[in-house]
Every structure is written in structure tokens, then in C-alpha cells.
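Fold it.
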Amino acid sequence: MFRFITRFLHKIRHPHPPVREIDPDQIFLDSRNLPAFDRHQFEGRLERPISRRIIWSVGVVFTLILLLLLGKTYTLQVQDGGTYAKQSAQNRLRHTLIFGSRGVLYDKRGTFLAWNIIDTDEPEFSKRKYLDQAGLSHILGFLKYPTKDKAGFYYKVDFEGRDGVEKYYNEYITPQHGLKIVETDAHGKVQSESVLKPPRDGESVTLTIDARLQDKLYGFIEQLAKDRGFQGGAAVLMDVENGDLLSMASFPEYDSQALTDGTEKKKSFRPKRRL
């Protein structure tokens, strides 16, 4: 009787179909699986529908996430859209240096002593080429090229003379670099470019040195050092009428080309004469 009254009151307070209570003895019987239900087919299990409260909670969470995404999109597109568009345009357009060529060095007869060539491996700037003749390295000296980092950006853009005429007349023969603007696509390919400032090459210098006389004087010192057992020697020839230095030779000498190129395979000193 007491159980009947309890079920009646519960039905009044809950108009939806009541859930049938399970007695403890029924639970013990189910744990033994006396009816031989197939558990893999979910036989003998009670199913309970998801409550509306859980559905509403999940809906509210997804709604909040959607509102946050819409708010972030509005901020990026409307409020900060102009700023990001400007940054995007700057990423597509970059300024690039146009390297000028270093001034050419001549002897008194117009013979090329130092000039510039284009290297196909690194065509951004011209490379220095020296006359392949003994006795000129201490006069001409050598230089250091512009240097870039691992990312390909030049952090040192000037040619730097390190010795001889390359160092003494460095400011005079150093070029003034130009500037161009380059437009690239999303893949980094160049679409167009425009020169903003053209480069200006360095000034050429004509020395009073005679390359042929320099070669003869260096050979004489080399032979004399070999015959007398000297380790080295030096000599200077001057025009007594006007004071021009026609030849300044020092034995042994270093290799201007090897020091400029920085190639370890080449010898930096030339104790023997190169013909």
C-alpha cells in the first residue's frame, strides 16, 4: 500500500510518463545475465534520452564560440583591415640595392691593372679582377666584398679596400649604390621592378706605375735573392725629372686575387715569379 501511494504522488507531481523503479534484486539478477543477453548487441541495457538541459548547454557553448569568431573576424576585417592591408602591400614591395662598379685602375700606359667582371654565381655586384702579373700585389692591395647573412640580406653593402691603392683611394673609387623597388607575388616571384635611384660607378685612377717595368724589376729582385741566398728584397724606381714612381717591387709578395676572392685553394703568397 505504501508503494502504491508513493507512485501516485509521484505521478501527480510529474505528468510525464514515470520511470519504473528498479529493485535491488533485479540489479543482482542483471549482473548475472541470467536471460543470456548479447552484450555486444547492447541487449538487456536501459537507454535514457539526453536531457534538454544538456542540449541547451551544448547549444549555448557553440553559440558563444560562433560569436567570438564573428567578433574576431569583424576586428580583423573592419577595424584593423586598413592596417593589415598596408602591411600586406609592404610585404609585396621591397627595396633592393643596385650595386655600382668600383673604379678601374690603370698604369701609365693605359694597361688594366684592376677592373670588374660579372660573376654568374653571384651577379648582384661585380667582382674585382687583377692583372695576372707578378710584382703588383703590394701596390694594388686587395679588398673585401659586401657581406650578407644566411637569410640573403646584406648587412655590409660597401666595398672595403684593405691594402695598397685599393685602400688609399678607397673613397675615390668606391661606387654609390642605387635603389630599386621590386614587386613580388605570394610565391616570391618578381612581377615588376622600378629603379628609384640609379647607381654611380666609382672614379677610375691612372697610376704612374709602368706595369712592364714593374714586371722586369720584380724578376730582377727575385733572381738576385735566389743567387745570393736572400729571403727577400725591395726596390723603387723614380723618374728624376718629375718625381713619378715608375716601379715599386717587393719580393716575395702575396696574391691580391686570392685574398680578394677569399679562396683557400689559391696560395696567398707567390715566392716565385708568374709569367
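The chain is about 35% helix and 20% strand.
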